[in-house]
Amino acid sequence: MAFRGVDYMHIDSLFSEDELLVRRTAREFITREFLPLIRDCYREGRFPTELIPTLGAIGFLGANLEGYGCAGMSNVEYGLAMQELERGDSGLRSFCSVQGSLVMFPIFTFGSEEQKKRWLPEMAAGRKLGCFGLTEPGFGSNPSGMQTRAEADGNDWVLNGEKTWITSGSIADVAVVWARTGDGIRGFLVEKGTPGFTTSDIHGKLSMRASVTSSLSFADCRVPASAMLPGAKGLRSALACLTQARYGIAWGVLGAAMECFETARQYTIDRKQFDNRPIASHQLVQEKLASMITEITKAQLLAAHAGRLKDQGKLEAAHVSMLKRNNVAIALDAARAARDLLGGNGIIDDYPVFRHMCNLETVKTYEGTDHIHALVIGERVTGIPAYR
Questions:
Q1: What are 187's strand-pairing partners?
Q2: What would the pLDDT profile of 111-134 be if each residue is shown by its tens digit?
Q3: DSSP 8-state code for residue 344
């Protein structure tokens, strides 16, 4: 059966025709082109790079940026697109989040006009790919401790250090790399093939298997002065990029939650036990479904409101922390409840539930752990930064 969405409280009435059209386009793409591939991709541990040109053609790369070949979607439209992409798989939404929010956004926001013209149209079309190098082996939740350095040498910069857990690292044509300089933390564009810049993929993942995850290494990697993002000054610039990505994540996980809920709902109606009655007729099953749909609905409302605030320029980083923390948590709970309702069938890949559940364990951790976002919210309501 075609996916009809999950809308208990007429959430669709909050969206315009243009917003619903974007969602419908994404939904049809996932159903027609992505879902037939994802089981094998997850088994094989590969990202379906063959779909990248289509993602560019339908405007989902850098979707909420203006000009330079980008679609110029509103933030609500962008959120609905991310929702449908993650209904397919977190790896797909993660690829789009990195390309748009973590690579195109910093070039758009902090880059020179020359950098924008060179990279953004190609990236919007999917002809060039990017990655974002911030996390290091010794510094995840505390990026201010980064050890990667960039030293000025004449008209060049020489980078040394390592980055890890980098989505799209080995397939990227350019990396946005954050490094410590004598003038504070700055951002650089490091192109694939630059001497001293190497990548290696991380293997053995039990989550996000349909996603490329890499480490980056810089050993006397020399880049020209023009590689620096001129407007990116200090860690605040890097964190602004993460805020953009977290917003997309918070919408995306709703898609995973909806897919798990709808799979469980239909399964419990079809599955007959105890006098040939559907297990959906039992109170304990209905209680689980009721809890799932309630939390999904609350998260939908939170996402829709945040999207409107973002389009009005009123959404703050602390708001995004609540959005990401809440929505990932309810999505993971929904996946776990769905797995329980499917019984033994919940662990096989004939159904999407266990794949989503494993992916969401990673999504809960990356781009700010649950605990870090709790401290951001805590600082907002008390004025006291507990993580310093």
A1: 178
A2: 999 999 999 999 999 999 999 999
A3: G
Q: Give me the catalytic one of 191, 287, 367, 379.
A: 367
Q: How far apart are CA 285 and CA 279, in angstroms?
A: 7
Residue whose structure tokens are 């703050």: 316
What pLDDT score does 199 carry?
98
Q: Are 328 and 249 in contact (CB under 8 A)?
A: yes
State how far the Cα of 152 lies from the Cα of 147, in Å rounded to an integer. Answer: 16
Burial of 263 (0-12, 13-18, 19+ CB in 10 A): buried
Residues in the chain predicted with pLDDT less than 70, given as ranges, are 1
Say which amino acid occupies 47: F
Q: Structure tokens of 172? A: 């990227």
Angle between helices 353-365 and 317-341 (to 10 degrees): 150
Spell out the alpha helix ranges (H) of 66-132: 75-88, 90-97, 105-110, 113-124
- The pLDDT assigned to 1 comes to 65
HSE on the CB side for 253, CA within 13 Å?
34
Task: Report the pLDDT value the prediction gives residue 144, as an integer from 0 to 100.
Answer: 87
Look up residue 53 and give its amino acid. Answer: P
169 vs 158: CA distance, rounded Å: 20
Ordered domains of the chain (ranges, CATH): 11-124 (1.10.540.10), 130-234 (2.40.110.10), 236-382 (1.20.140.10)
Mind spelling out the 3-state secondary structure of 11-22?
A: HHHHCCHHHHHH
Pairing of strands 174-181, 130-133: parallel
Query: Does residue 113 carry a catalytic annotation?
Result: no
- Give the Cα-Cα-Cα angle 369, 295, 300 (nearest 5 degrees): 85
Helix (H/G/I), strand (E/B), else coil: 338? helix
pLDDT tens-digit profile of 143-154? 889 999 999 999
- Comparing C-alpha atoms, which of 95, 82, 197 is closest to residue 150? 197
